[in-house]
Structure formats: C-alpha cells, structure tokens
Amino acid sequence: MQDPKEKCMSVKDAMNPKIQEIITELKDKPGALLPILHAIQDHLGYIPAESVPPIAAALNLSRAEVHGVISFYHYFRDTPPGKTTIHLCRAESCQAMGSKKLEDHVKSRLGIDFHETTADGAFSLEPVYCLGLCACSPSMQMGDEVFGRVTPETFDNTIAELEVQS
Ligand code: FES
Fold it and tell me: Any residues with CB less than 8 A from the CB of 87 and at least 6 apart, and which?
C-alpha cells in the first residue's frame, strides 16, 4: 500500500508549478481567493482539482470552502475547456432577434448544454451577456472571433470550416 505521505508528494509534484507561483504571489492580498482562481483559470483554462488543497492551505480555508466558490461561479471551470470555446449571447438584443432558436440549434448540433464540452474535446459552450455587437444580433464568439447575425445555417457552416481545419 502506498504511504499517504508519498501520495501527497506525488500530487504536489504533479501540480503545475505556475499554480504555486500564483498562490504565493496573491495569497496576501485582501480577498485573495477570487484573484487566485481567476489567475489560475487565465493561465490554464480551468482550475485543476489538485490546486484546491494548496489554495485552501495558503488562505486558511477548508477545501470545501474553496470548492464551494469554484462551483458557485459558472465562470470557473474545473475541467479543461474544449479546443474552441463558443460563447453564445443570451442578452436582450440577441434574444429579441431569435437567439433562443439559435441556442437550441447549437446545443442540439453539438450535443451539449452550456458549461459542457463535446466528447471529442473540440468545443465548449458558454453563455455570455452581450458581446457589444447588439446591432448585429444574434451574436456569438468562437475562439477569438466574433460573429453577428448568426443563423443556424451560418453556425453550421462555421463549425464545418473549423472541423475541416482541425
Ligand atoms: S445583446 Fe447580444 S451582443 Fe449585445
């Protein structure tokens, strides 16, 4: 049977060194938990489970408290994002221009709901509340690119182009 100390060491060793660097850099700031979580997600695209114990230890919190904050905010991910993240706008102007129909189509086409990733790891789907492109509603962001006047057909074409490129 593996010594529990050895297990702890192997988890620590497996942790991305950047996580410990972020914790060390930010832990003494007031309200450090959210800045630490944001910095880790900005760096890795998600917050790995192995980062919870060192965050809790550094901030004198329980692991449950750290985990509770991660799961409370939908923005935070605890699994790696897909290769491309699609942000679909759900705000007022886009809703008025049929974003719900588009949303239903996108979910059905990808076979996932918001905050999920396709089984092949190609796409993650997230809601967003205004992309600043209201005049061209409904809008979405795919990776770094923003699209306006999106229809189910143009969505399918864009996805097909990305699938051909990968
Ligand atoms: S409401 Fe969708 S881009 Fe502004």
Answer: 126, 127, 128, 131, 140, 141, 142
The verdict on the CB of residue 89 being under 6 Å from ligand 1 is yes
Measure 96 CA to ligand 1 centroid, in angstroms. Answer: 10
**In 13-111, beta strands by DSSP E:** 84-89
- Please report how the helices 52-59 and 63-72 are oriented relative to each other, as an axis angle in degrees rounded to 10: 110
- Does residue 41's CB lie within 6 angstroms of at least one atom of ligand 1? no
- In the CATH scheme, what is the code of domain 84-165? 3.40.30.10
Q: Could you state, in order of their start, the residue ranges of all structural domains in the chain?
A: 4-72, 84-165
Quote the pTM value. Answer: 0.78
Distance of CA 72 to the CA centre of its chain: 13
> pLDDT of 10-62, one tens digit each?
344 457 899 999 999 999 999 999 999 999 999 999 999 999 999 999 999 99
CATH architecture of 4-72: Orthogonal Bundle (1.10)
